[in-house]
Amino acid sequence: MKKKRVIVGLSGGVDSSVAAHLLIEEGYEVIGLFMKNWHDESVTLSNECPWLEDSNDAMLVAEKLGIPFQTVDLSAEYKERIVDYMFDEYAAGRTPNPDVLCNREIKFDVFLKIALSLGADYVATGHYCQKEEVTVDATTQYRLISGADGNKDQSYFLCQLTQDQLSKTLFPIGHLQKAAVRKIARELDLVTAEKKDSQGLCFIGKVRLPDFLQQQLQPKTGKIIEIPEDFYDHRRESNALTDQSQKIRYSPTDGKIIGTHQGAHFFTIGQRKGLAVGGTPEPLFVIDTDVSENIVYVGQGKDHPGLLRKSLKINIDDVHWVRNDLKVSIGESMSVMARIRYRQTLQKATLFPEKNAFYVLFDQQQSAITSGQFVAWYKDSELLGSGVIV
Q1: Regarding the domain with residue range 5-214, which homologous superfamily does it belong to in the CATH classification?
Q2: Residues 105-159: pLDDT tens digits?
Q3: Enzyme catalytic residues
Q4: Looking at the domain that runs over 307-389, which CATH code has it been given?
């Protein structure tokens, strides 16, 4: 019987290396493919060349495992679908998530199509998440399950995947703890066994996001305005979802000027570092930005009312269900667990779909709900859907 062919996205890291090994052990025909997604030296700030180093490590792993290996250049698609989108979002005062977009647009779209054109039955990655199959009304549904290692669970980054993408994807290490993955790599004497996890932008590597943005978005001096806590005293908490989900719009007269910045588009809600304003009793946090007026609004302390909100809104067109059979209809509601950022502990929430918008109401106030980011919702350990926060 012919072996099923799997193309593994070998990133030059330990996780994808061990994923390839486990697939070989399971009897698959495995091919390693390295995605070269960025080599624009105009925005590389050091002489280090991470993609070249990573590509070399991926090649050495493939050699050690005895599998075919090649590099594919996806930099044009990456620039168009990820980088340009990121700059547009930041310029508009929103904060995109490049890792979620990377998975939706590159790994599980462009890369998947290349793999299928090479005769692959599946693609595989080193993500810490799991997949299960269930039959609902005689139809196979694919469940996206959190990784067994709670500290490394990466299901949030895959919150935009579709049933079709999941049907052709394998997650070989999702049932393992990170320590076990490193142990396997050591036993195999893989060059990636002790390699640190990448901390840079998805596929860009050792480039800090603010530095990357400053290469494209021009600095522009503006005011930092502090909003006092008593500003909110006259604002009564509304019970209407539509009111709760709205960000408060500040004006310069609502607070006092306490400093300057080099561009509102470089800041995001909840940010503490980079303000370069001292002398306040409590640390300053960004509570809002106005890119049209180039103003950064801040408040003192992590419990400042400007940081806290109980609900958020998603435009109808930006709601995505991994499991279409579990969609909530207009007028109904669903109790879920949800998170608004990677690594956030799951929070109790309720989904409320309406005709013109989709709302997520949390039991407890959430800090720094940020436009452009993704909220993902779960039932138990299964990720059901996600959406872009307005």
Answers
A1: HUPs (3.40.50.620)
A2: 999 999 999 999 999 999 999 999 999 999 999 999 999 999 999 999 999 999 9
A3: 102, 202
A4: 2.40.30.10
